[in-house]
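Tip: read the tokens left to right.
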């Protein structure tokens, strides 16, 4: 095992110390948060953590669904869980929906594990175009307790490598909630720029999202 290296089976391996920080994520179905992302500080003992990245398997479906629901609620239900939010989360984040993604030939789903536990995941959708960019990062979710460990950066970098291998083009695009300033800053720090506005409707209300692109 080499910190920050690649193993022979293609997994990324990195070592970090878990610490409280921001939760970074994006999804094509992000509503606008009623308030800024939750920023309460969680007291934790720092632990040395090694994480790895690999393609998701069917037996990961339940864990991915739970983590997705956790991250979504943590960020977007800071004012409490409404009936609309409850219905959306329980319908969207199910093992069945995750299995459908895994069975879709246009989707690549990568997971990041820390000590054999799921810490984050990324969903890539090929053939989903924005202008000249053919690959969408549909979802990037990191459990808040692993924020700041470099897992989000590692997943994004790994995904762009997959895009290059599959399409000959490492450019990607995504949408991120316009009020999620921490996530926006995360993407900007990794070379992504705004390239439009998109909207998501939830409960009859349209929520603004920024379209961000990395072409380099």
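Filled-in amino acids:
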């Amino acid at each position: 095992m080499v910190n920050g290296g690649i193993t022979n089976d293609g997994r990324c391996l990195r070592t970090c110390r878990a610490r409280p920080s921001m939760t970074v994520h994006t999804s094509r179905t992000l509503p606008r948060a009623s308030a800024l992302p939750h920023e309460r500080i969680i007291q934790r003992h720092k632990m040395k953590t090694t994480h790895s990245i690999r393609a998701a398997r069917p037996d990961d479906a339940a864990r991915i669904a739970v983590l997705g629901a956790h991250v979504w609620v943590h960020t977007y239900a800071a004012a409490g869980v409404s009936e609309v939010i409850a219905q959306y989360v329980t319908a969207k984040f199910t093992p069945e929906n995750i299995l459908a993604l895994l069975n879709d030939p246009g989707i690549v789903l990568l997971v990041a594990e820390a000590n054999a536990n799921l810490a984050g995941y990324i969903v890539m959708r090929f053939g989903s175009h924005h202008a000249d960019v053919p690959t969408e990062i549909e979802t990037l979710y990191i459990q808040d307790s692993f924020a700041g460990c470099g897992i989000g950066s590692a997943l994004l970098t790994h995904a762009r490598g997959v895009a290059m291998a599959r399409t000959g083009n490492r450019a990607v695009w995504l949408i991120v909630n316009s009020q999620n300033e921490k996530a926006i800053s995360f993407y900007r720090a990794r070379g992504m720029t705004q390239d439009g506005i998109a909207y998501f409707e939830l409960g009859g209300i349209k929520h603004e999202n920024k379209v961000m692109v990395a072409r380099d």
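Residues 76 and 121 are 18 Å apart (CA to CA). The first strand starts at residue 5 and ends at 6.
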